[in-house]
Amino acid sequence: MTLGLIGALAVYALIGIGVAFAARRGLGAGATEYYLAGRRAGGLISALSYGATTYSAFMMVGLAGLTYAGGVGALGFELVYLAGLGLVAIFGPRFWLASRAFGFITPAEMLSHRYASRWVGGVMAVTACVFLIPYSAVQLMGIGYLVSGLTDMAIGFEQGILIGAALALIWTLAAGMRSVLWTDALQVVVMLVTSLIAAGFVIAALGGPAAFLESTQADHGEWLSVPGPGLFSLTTFFALTVPWFFFSISNPQVSQRLFTTESIGAMRRMLLGFLLLGFVYTLISVVWGFSALQLVPDLDQPDLATPRLLATDAIPAPVAIVLVVGIVAAAVSTVDSILLSLSSLAARDLYRPLAPRGSHEMIAGQAVILVVTVLAVLFARLQLDLITVLSVAASSGLLVTVPSIVGCFFWRRGTAAGAIVSMVVAGVTVTVLQLTGFDPLGIPASIWGGALAVALFVGVSLATRPDSARADAFLAPVEQGLAQHRIR
Amino acid sequence: MSDDRRRGNRTLALLAVTIVLAYAVPYGLLRDQPVWQGAFLFWLVFGVVAIGLIAWLVSDWRP
Prior knowledge:
The complex is a heterodimer of chains A (about 500) and B (about 60). Chain A has helices at about 1-20, 30-35, 45-55, 60-70, 75-85, 85-100, 105-115, 120-150, 155-175, 175-205, 210-220, 235-245, 245-250, 250-255, 265-295, 305-310, 315-355, 360-380, 385-390, 395-400, 400-410, 415-435, 445-465, 470-485. Chain A is mainly alpha-helical and about 500 residues long. The longest helix of chain A is centred in the C-terminal third of the chain and has 38 residues, at about 315-355. Chain A starts with a helix and ends with a helix. Chain B has one domain. In chain B, helix 1 packs antiparallel against helix 2. In chain B, about 30% of the residues are buried.
């Protein structure tokens, strides 16, 4: 197993590096080329990359663990997220048209322009860093635990982290968004194919699909219901689904993709392709979790369901090896997109306003990629509880940016003060609530954070003077484009 | 209001209703039903319907 896994990881890394450097050919100069692949990404590759970026090691480890612990609620949670992609149908063309009209590279830059204040984008960039660096660190920790556990420490935890970080770093630095798109496309295929094969083997080990359905219902019927064994109370279901419903516009590593497609048609192909891919991958992950319930029952830690399942006889060693490569690919493809997105946010929304000499912007951005990688590795090595909490809080934390993003297009009365206060106060509040585990009135932190952000954005905006001329100038080309493309 | 716009609004409203049902039905009508034909099947159908509605919503775009 150990030698096989090392060999498979080496092959995966070499192919990925080859693809990343092949992507350098045709790479032009400038921030738009580097961060947005020159706004020329096709629909298919964008769909594949969107899938690889969205779906991390969480799916075959965390979601499988959630299914193991709480049952079918995990399926509902992930499919409500998928339905949230309806937001891309609303906001996608608006992001795209605004970025074409004004040359935006980051979503934060768009908010700065719309609200006529660089502070808005700066606050959004800092918020993204606070939550997404720990999120990346947890991805690296996932690689470390999985690889060290399955090789009996032949590859250590820290080595696992460094391998993941090095691959993400190389694939980001090689050609920016171009290398991320190309390697993501490769990785999502690896993720899907390997998980499908592995799920096929466990179903076969359980006697085939009919026997699997029958035995699950007979032995673990409670897991097929909600609230089920207890994890998925309606409150928890709300707490998990609300932040994730808005993921497609709140998380810059995916919302920035709405700037990269070559046309509105390519964006449509990206959206539909991703929905299909997401639906299949969700089903596989949930079925995998249900299989673990039968093959490795009574685990104290549900997150161990996948590693333990891989160690059973149900999965031949070569299949286990390719699945681990698939999970590593899922983690790395998420981390590299976050690295690139945070780099662009730091360079465009934090560095540029402070040091307006544009010639150093690209170097600053690449330096940020290095710094973020080092921070993620350090956080991962420390294995602090705080990191895990911040990572879990990532989607709740970024939810506080949603009112400002919605207001950008749908509320001319929204102001910079409203956007800044809502992001800062609600962001700090949700972090404190998550860290202390305090749920006032029994309402979860994510719901408090979202509600507070809406209330503050509306309240402070109404109490301050809007820049109506800027709102009109921002929305004019967007509305014109929407009419031209017959988009509602 | 043009026909396109009306149709778009109708599809969005349907998507919103579908999403509300994704909470209400499993936790209401299908609560504590320990069978595949319960919440599992409902959410599966919900996923397909939601994807279908999103596809319908973007089908009018004129690139």
